[in-house]
């Protein structure tokens, strides 16, 4: 959580917590940046770029990562064809919802970013994608934490 909160602060985003009500959010007329704490090393510059894109286009913007796993279709418990990974994206972070879109929503977006993206699309909103850097990957295991540590340690050495 600390890394995710730091990244938001460094990107120039004002932090709010769950105690802010839905009417307060929509009446404020501000853009909403949802950041998944399971993408803790998402660079602040990437978050700021997504916010800028959402403001320029008036459309929601979500960070994504390429799918590298083999994905199979399953129907009625039977494994079927292999899906083309080139046609798939993994939702990462952030999801930026511009104020104009936020005002049109009937309810607060889901806290799960993939579900929030699906809900926005189902409501007729075109969600733009932006490829997140490798450091913006989602953590699902201890192995992922080690990978992020290696990525960010190498990045720090490269700057130094």
Automatic annotation (TrEMBL):
InterPro entries: IspD/TarI, Nucleotide-diphossugar_trans. It holds the Pfam family IspD. The keyword Transferase applies. GO terms for molecular function: nucleotidyltransferase activity. Gene3D superfamilies: Spore Coat Polysaccharide Biosynthesis Protein SpsA, Chain A. Keywords: Nucleotidyltransferase, Transferase. This is 2-C-methyl-D-erythritol 4-phosphate cytidylyltransferase.
